[in-house]
Design a protein that fits this description.
heterotrimer, A alpha/beta, B mainly alpha, C alpha/beta, A: alpha/beta, Rossmann fold, 2 domains, 8-stranded mixed sheet, 4-stranded antiparallel sheet, 12 strands, globular, C: alpha/beta, 10 helices, ATP-binding (chain C), AAA+_ATPase (chain C), ATP hydrolysis activity (chain C)
Chain lengths: ~325, ~300, ~325
């Protein structure tokens, strides 16, 4: 499989009053061509910051990438200047946000916004770009594409807008698409449409997709591989086929058990006690230890490394116990 | 465009860390606004002068000394003396008390009346809103000072009437700003949630909506005090406010203007005080607005 | 089951007028269009549907936050529609609402203890404060918020904790009915399950009846006994949970069920609906669903389907079954 994106030891922090507060503590992930990778976590887990760091959309915010490497097709994106990065953004890597409204200009017609991007990246003439824009809109299932070109964003429904966003982001044939909760704001029947569409597009264009969501149901619908984040760290990585049977990290397992599943008829759901620790009050060892039903002494002392598990990778002492040697020699923990 | 989203998103991550105290949070942000911070210090200094002024003035501000009239700034009369030989520094300090009490009490009255009108207008809407807003429009149509002159002309000169006049023209701006913030707050979910539990209208207005408008009121209050000082001084200058012999800044300007060619200091120091005080209140108001009410900044 | 009826809704209709400037002066959005359903004492009635289907409006109508145009809401036999405000309040005591957004539904400048006792302040102004606080302490404790946090303000809590505070507040009047409008939708999965469990526990402990409004079918399935499915202001199907999920009749229910992303079941057949949800201000004639319905017939475009009893406690409004 051809590797598109390889993120290693990505660390991002927020500049606060005086200190810099780290939000990502060394993220390692890769996305290959033709694969949909799910990045799952609850709010505050750092999944969105990861995507923004990759796209380098953190400027103008208190966020800053502190260390690490973001390797896209052999180029370290972090070493690029903003002007160079802009050539990648939209053309090579595209991003779809949860709220399409915030990423479209409300006072510019949709057609114009689309053609401008196409002209910029593909260097098409205006006429050719318009034709391309219309065919793109049609390809995402928008009826009367010509009329839509003439409308303003507020005239369209949420589902339509998300289609427009997708059309816009794939119009320059990116190799990598980052989708940040693209269906969270949509209704279920519309969500099903959009997921279907994304899957179709991905299959025909063979692009790589990093799909960020909090919904494990959606992950199982669309993704090939899933990465679970907790408190700014990756805690588990495995293929979706294995997720519901063979997840090994107690957090992943707990999440799966917490979702009500139709036809299960449980009186009560499993629930993970407590809440996500705040960045200022991080436990010393494993960050999940305070909520974990299996926490052992070592979990409170030392943070486990992300090690190979039966079906993927897991950051858990239960898994790693017998691999402690490997831990000490191979991974020095980065705090 | 993109960054608006990004900010929203980052907030979520940052806010998972809750700050303990609203005031500390405010102070942390405010402390960084240096001009506003220094303005606040200056105003606090003025307030000290208001309270303790009479004990620290070097001379009695009303005691004439005909042997030393119109002397230039020099020791012991640091700001010089006026045409009766009274110490200008002492008079300026005494004037602080008049300026601040007049302007603050006037704006306070105006703010209270305006807030009530604004809350009623915004919450109940319909004809009562229209009536109150038309009334405000009419008041807005008069230039502030002309309106104040008119009121003082009817009521007669004197500081008390100056207070009434300034309070009167402060009302519409408070009414408007409180109304617009009421309109916004009354659509929020916690207001609906209070309605759903059967809370009375009075309770909703005073317990749920009013507290949300306080930041805006504070900002407006501060800025209006600046304007009020200027208006009070103008009225006194015109002979409609404080007695001309009293140590009011406006009255001092009025009395001193005959000597402006020879003894510039008599008008310079009271004028400077007016300028600095109004400026301080305006900068403080700007700073407070940035922190308390960021969305109205532009 | 021989449970007695707590709420009976008959022909409930709410029309919102459209702006007068651009539209016809007499245009209306029929947000809720002739609903009939009953909620029995002690059960959880789930109301599902997509945005704009009128499910939240229904909750607000029952609570009296907005006034119905037509129809009846019988609460314990008493029709609430058209009651003057003063009499409404004695019924509001017996039903409380929990809202979706725990960040917006609590007054930001009130302390937690004052928020929780507010319903008592409203309905029992003469009760001594110490008694109110005693009740509040007990309920907060049950909902998992310790007394230690009493003097804090809402912004100091997480979403899940705030929703627990809302729940404690909704219980303080000892209500019979709780209307939960998307009460867990804004919460993270692990927190959502905590709150759902709490709601289930409280139902037993306090003998509560729930009207549980949500767009999330799996959550509704988990918590409800009976479920109503809404589409564009209509109730298209009402059935017991088992009936509805094992044997959905209405094509909309069927597609809705197949659209839910379900972990570990990605291979099942899916009915993906075509097109968008029509605008409520200009709904299709006849059956409102016919524009997206895979089985639409001629009659569906012309006539509004009647409610058909296909089984005990299973009502569907669809021409396929007439």
């Amino acid at each position: 499989m051809e590797q598109l994106l390889k993120v290693s030891n990505l660390q991002t922090g927020f500049k606060n009053d005086r200190e810099i507060q780290k939000v990502l503590h060394g993220i390692d992930l890769e996305v290959n061509k033709g694969e949909i990778v799910g990045l799952v976590g609850e709010s505050g887990s750092g999944k969105s910051v990861t995507s923004l760091s990759i796209m380098q959309l953190l400027h103008g915010t208190p966020g800053k990438v502190l260390a690490g490497e973001i390797n896209y097709k052999g180029v370290d994106l972090l070493s690029l200047k903003e002007s160079e990065m802009r050539k990648y953004r939209g053309k090579e890597l595209s991003m779809i946000f949860q709220e399409p409204m915030t990423s479209l200009n409300p006072v510019v017609k949709i057609g114009k916004q689309l053609t401008e991007i196409i002209m910029l990246h593909l260097k098409y003439s205006k006429k050719k770009a318009q034709g391309h824009a219309i065919s793109m809109l049609e390809s995402v299932g928008i009826p009367r594409a010509k009329d839509i070109m003439e409308s303003y964003p507020h005239e369209l429904s949420g589902g339509m807008l998300q289609r427009v966003m997708i059309a816009m982001q794939i119009s320059c044939y990116p190799s990598l698409l980052i989708a940040d909760e693209p269906t969270t704001a949509l209704d279920v029947t519309i969500q099903a449409q959009i997921l279907n569409l994304l899957k179709e597009i991905q299959e025909t264009s063979n692009m790589g997709v990093l799909f960020i969501t909090h919904d494990l149901g959606v992950v199982s619908e669309i993704c090939d591989r899933v990465i679970v984040m907790y408190a700014g760290r990756i805690v588990e990585e495995l293929s979706v086929d294995r997720l519901f049977e063979d997840a090994s990290h107690p957090y992943t397992k707990g999440l799966i058990k917490s979702i009500p599943i139709i036809g299960q008829n449980k009186k009560k759901l499993f629930s993970i006690p407590g809440t996500v620790p705040s960045p200022r009050n991080m436990p010393k060892g494993c960050k999940f230890a305070p909520r974990c039903e299996f926490a052992m002494d070592i979990c409170w002392q030392k943070e486990p490394a992300l090690l190979d598990s039966n079906y993927g990778k897991s950051r858990c002492w239960l898994e790693a116990e017998d691999k402690e040697e490997a831990y000490d020699s191979k991974y020095s923990y980065r705090s | 465009m993109e960054n608006k989203y990004v900010e929203m998103d980052l907030n979520e991550e940052i806010n998972s860390d809750k700050t303990e105290n609203r005031f500390l949070e405010f102070w942390k942000l405010f402390r960084r606004k240096k001009p506003a911070l220094y303005s606040l210090y200056f105003i606090l200094l003025l307030l000290v002068l208001v309270v303790a002024g009479q004990y620290i003035t070097p001379f009695d501000h009303s005691e004439p000394n005909y042997s030393n009239i119109l002397s230039s700034p020099s020791w012991p009369h640091v700001f010089g003396t006026d045409e009766y030989g009274r110490d200008v520094l002492s008079r300026v300090i005494a004037g602080t008390k008049i300026a601040l009490t007049v302007s603050i009490s006037a704006v306070l009255i105006g703010a209270i009346a305006g807030t009530i009108l604004g809350l009623v207008s915004g919450f109940f809407g319909k004809w009562i809103d229209k009536a109150i807003m038309r009334f405000c429009d009419i008041l807005f149509a008069f230039p502030d000072l002309i309106l104040a002159i008119g009121i003082v002309a009817i009521l007669g000169p004197g500081l008390q009437n100056v207070i009434i006049a300034i309070a009167f023209f402060s009302v519409p701006s408070f009414a408007r700003i409180v109304r617009s913030s009421t309109l916004e707050v009354k659509e929020l979910l916690f207001v609906e949630s209070a309605k759903s539990m059967g809370a009375s209208k009075r309770r909703i207005v005073f317990k749920h909506i009013f507290p949300e408008t306080i930041p805006v009121i504070i900002v407006y209050f501060t800025m209006n005090v600046g304007t009020a000082i200027l208006s009070a001084a103008s009225l006194s200058f015109l002979g409609l406010g404080a007695e001309l012999s009293s140590p009011d800044w406006g009255a001092m300007l009025s009395m001193g203007r005959d000597y402006i060619g020879t003894s510039f200091h008599i008008v310079f120091f009271p004028g400077l005080m007016i300028f600095l005080t109004v400026l301080a209140f305006n900068i403080l108001g700007d700073g407070l607005r940035d922190v308390l009410d960021p969305k109205t900044r532009d | 089951m021989t449970q007695s009826t707590l709420i009976e809704v008959k022909g409930l209709t709410k029309k919102f007028p459209l702006g007068k400037k651009w539209f016809k002066p007499n245009g209306y959005v029929r947000a809720v269009d002739g609903l009939d359903f009953t909620i029995k004492k002690g059960e959880t009635f789930g109301l599902v549907g997509e945005s704009g289907c009128g499910k939240s409006t229904t909750g607000r109508l029952i609570n009296g936050l907005i006034e119905a145009n037509e129809g009846e809401i019988l609460f314990d036999g008493q029709n609430l529609v058209g009651l003057p405000d003063s009499q409404w309040n004695s019924y509001r005591k017996r039903m409380q609402m929990i809202f979706q957004d725990p960040f917006a539904s609590l007054s930001p400048r009130m302390k937690i203890k004052d928020i929780v006792i507010e319903p008592l302040d409203v309905h029992y102004p003469k009760m001594p404060k110490s008694e109110k606080l005693e009740k509040a302490e007990k309920l907060l404790e049950i909902c998992g918020i310790s007394k230690f946090h009493w003097n804090k303000y809402p912004h100091e809590f997480s979403g899940g904790q705030r929703q627990r505070i809302s729940i404690a507040r909704s219980l303080i009047l000892n209500p019979e009915l709780i209307i939960a409008d998307e009460a867990v939708s804004a919460l993270d999965v692990s927190i959502q399950s905590q709150v759902l469990n709490l709601l289930v526990d409280l139902q037993v402990e306090f003998d509560l009846t729930y009207l549980f409004i949500s767009h999330d079918l799996s959550v509704v399935e988990h918590i409800s006994n009976r479920i109503g499915v809404m589409y564009l202001g209509d109730l298209v199907e009402v059935a017991s949970k088992e009936q509805l999920f094992k044997n959905p009749k209405h094509p909309y229910t069927q597609s809705l069920l197949s659209s839910i992303p379900q972990p570990g079941k990605q291979d099942r057949e899916k009915i993906i609906l075509k097109g968008e949800i029509p605008s409520a201000s200009n709904p299709p004639k006849g059956c409102k669903f016919h524009t997206r319905c895979p089985f639409a017939m001629d009659i569906c475009r012309k006539e509004i389907p009647e409610n058909i009893h296909v089984d005990d406690d299973h009502v569907v409004a669809c021409h396929l079954y007439s």
